[in-house]
Amino acid sequence: MKIPAEIPQPLFLTAVEIEAIRAALEQMLPRRLTISLNLGRSHREVILTDRNSFLLGETPVALTEVLFRKPEDRTIFIFEQEAWKKWQRFDSATGKFYKMVFTAPARPPTIEISGVKMHVTKDADPVMDTGNKIATLHKISGTVLDTCLGLGYTAIACAEKKQVKRVLVCEADMNVFHLCRQNPWSAALFANRKIQPVLVPAQDFISGIPDSYFDVVLHDPPRFAMSPELYSEKFYRDLFRIMKRGGELYHYTGNPNQRVRKKSLLIQTRELLTQVGFRQVKQAYFEKQFSDGMITRVTRHFHSFQKKNFLPPHG
């Protein structure tokens, strides 16, 4: 699928900027104010001309009532079609609701899909979450596959490494891709020539890839209930086939319904990966999280896997 042409970057406001504007409006106007309009990526000076607008350069930007209702710390507002609205969208065909979520000042946002967050944000943020994934691998170099684009943070981090020549990254959900295109923290995804987004489901894409093509694969799929095909034996066999000897696979898997499952998803995934040929299948790290005041020892599992060197060397 062809990647859409470049789109202009919209303006954004979070509770941080809205509070600064609110405080400035209590002072004598007009008043100059320096704020971020791109989620902390940079700061610009605006001029508050009255209680209903500010000037960005010579362009007036309306300050609508929706910004000053009861504060919502996690909500991000986007300026589209001359109005501020919450940065979210609903897909009537699938019934899924997508919401971009503020995590911390000068930190990337995350996304919630029907209430499920894409990144670990409790005592962390998307930068830390991405760093933890990358750190599980011994070496990231050559040609890399990221099976699920999301907001592109993992693909961007991989492409920043000098040893990496190319990053191919799949995304099947055009709602996610649309939000990614708007996100200021995802801009490098479209600016870095090493990165190539592929707008097809990962399972369809890898089925047509030649054997022994990728040096590294990062597989951070949605929850099992949302995408069971990305946890299947067939998918793992294709992953094994397209990876070079000695290549590494990072795989995220949660542990849903662990109290009622006969076999945990963690164990099931480990067995399937070993069965299709991966070796050194091991847990890389886990996140401690709190539930009803109790520490649930493992709520998220992260694994690192390596392909067996059972084939003879080329030549």
Short description:
The protein has 315 residues and is α+β, with helices and mostly antiparallel strands. The protein folds into two domains: 76 residues, no CATH class; 191 residues, Rossmann fold (3-Layer(aba) Sandwich). It is built from eight helices and 20 strands.
How would you characterize this protein structure?
The protein has helices at residues 15-25, 126-135, 153-159, 174-182, 187-191, 202-207, 233-242, 265-276, and strands spanning 11-13, 31-35, 44-50, 53-56, 59-62, 77-80, 83-86, 88-91, 96-101, 110-113, 116-117, 142-146, 164-170, 195-198, 214-219, 243-254, 278-286, 289-291, 294-296, 300-307. The protein contains eight helices and 20 strands. Strands 14-13-12-15-16-20-17 form a seven-stranded mixed beta sheet, with helices on both faces. A four-stranded antiparallel beta sheet has the order 2-3-4-5, with helices on one face. A four-stranded antiparallel beta sheet has the order 8-9-10-11, with helices on one face. The protein folds into two domains: 11-86, no CATH class; 117-307, Rossmann fold (3-Layer(aba) Sandwich).
Describe the secondary-structure layout.
Layout: E1 11-13, H1 15-25, E2 31-35, E3 44-50, E4 53-56, E5 59-62, E6 77-80, E7 83-86, E8 88-91, E9 96-101, E10 110-113, E11 116-117, H2 126-135, E12 142-146, H3 153-159, E13 164-170, H4 174-182, H5 187-191, E14 195-198, H6 202-207, E15 214-219, H7 233-242, E16 243-254, H8 265-276, E17 278-286, E18 289-291, E19 294-296, E20 300-307
Parallel strand pairs: 12-13, 12-15, 13-14, 15-16
Antiparallel strand pairs: 1-6, 2-3, 3-4, 4-5, 6-7, 8-9, 9-10, 10-11, 16-20, 17-20, 18-19
Helix pairs in contact: 2-3
